[in-house]
Amino acid sequence: MNKPALPLIVVTDLDGTLLDHHSYSFRPAMPALACLRSLGIPCILNSSKTFDEMLELREKLNNTSPFVCENGGAVFIPRESGRGFTSEMTGSSYTSIIKALEKLRDLGFEFRGFNDMSVADIADVTGLSDEDAAMAKKRHASEPIVWLDDEEKLDEFSSALSCQNLRLLKGGRFYHVMGGNDKSEAVTFFKDYYEKLWDCSLDVIALGDGGNDLSMLEAADYPIVIPGVNQILEPENPATRTAEKSGPAGWNDTLLALLNELTKEKTRG
């Protein structure tokens, strides 16, 4: 990919950010997506979703950029041949995560993960079709869970996970159990990747709405907070701007405004 006139990359969350929290539609974001394509700026999808889910979404979005699955657990870069991907697995294996969770359940913690659910159960709790729910169930590096225990026991649960070299992150819809990886790895990984590819310094725009997006937003040069269902994030980053609208409408308006500002700055410079 050739270096764009604006040396930028965009790293974005999906559910509740680029995709509507309920309908999963991205239609309101289409003008900004078209703008990124016209400028040649990569739009890197960085989600808790699985590899299979991401492949389907990339096709719907007409997206050809690299992507990141399961909260930074795996990075995938399209091969130049156009066939397949090179990958880098950065998280704990799914098998080790499930074994650790079984031990914690034996200690009395109450939760329900995707591994405990049928495809129909996952479709019911997410609103996904059965086909999409089946893809969500195929996991490699993280486990979404529904917390069924007292809220007061969450800290104890998180500490118990830490003893297993795992961590707990709150997403827009689920808690996610994973290894030491988080979404900020996409920012540092792809900033380095594209700076080497383009032989220049660049800035990263990141967009997210959930607790598992916080590290990504704090690592970005231009963080954009999308208002969440039950929260509005407050990253420790002075460059943070918060969208006025939720979901893809806020994604579209705030990103277009920022791109317009940066284009004008470059023109004046």
Q: Explain this structure to me?
A:
- With 269 residues, this protein is of the alpha/beta class.
- The chain folds into two domains: 8-90 and 182-268, Rossmann fold (3-Layer(aba) Sandwich); 94-178, 2-Layer Sandwich (Threonyl-tRNA Synthetase, Chain A, domain 2).
- The chain contains nine helices and twelve strands.
- The strands form two sheets. It has an eight-stranded mixed β-sheet with strand order 5-4-3-2-1-10-11-12, sandwiched between helices.
- Helix 4 crosses helix 5.
- It is globular and about 60 Å long.
- It starts with 7 loop residues before the first strand and ends with a helix.
Set out the fold topology.
Elements (H helix, E strand, L loop, with lengths): L7 E5 L17 H10 L3 E4 L4 H11 L5 E3 L4 E5 L6 E5 L4 H13 L4 E3 L5 H8 L3 H8 L4 E6 L6 H9 L4 E4 L4 E4 L5 H15 L4 E6 L5 H6 L2 E4 L15 E2 L4 H22 L1
Parallel strand pairs: 1-2, 1-10, 2-3, 10-11, 11-12
Antiparallel strand pairs: 3-4, 4-5, 6-7, 7-9, 8-9
Helix pairs in contact: 1-9, 4-5
List key phrases describing it.
269 residues, alpha/beta, Rossmann fold, Threonyl-tRNA Synthetase, Chain A, domain 2, eight-stranded mixed beta sheet, four-stranded antiparallel beta sheet, 9 helices, 38% helix, globular
State the CATH topology of the largest domain: Rossmann fold
> What gyration radius follows from the Cα positions, in whole Å?
18 Å
Class based on secondary structure composition and strand pairing: alpha/beta
CATH architecture of the largest domain: 3-Layer(aba) Sandwich
Percent of residues in helices comes to 25-40%
| Level-1 CATH class name of the largest domain | Alpha Beta
Report the strand count.
12
Q: Could you give a short account of the major beta sheet? A: 8 strands, mixed
> For this structure, what is the CATH homologous superfamily of the largest domain?
HAD superfamily/HAD-like
Distance between the termini: 25 Å
Shape: globular
Mean pLDDT: 93
Low-confidence stretches: none
Adjacency order of strands in the biggest sheet: 5-4-3-2-1-10-11-12
Give me the strand/helix succession. Answer: EHEHEEEHEHHEHEEHEHEEH
Q: Beta-sheet strand percentage?
A: 15-25%
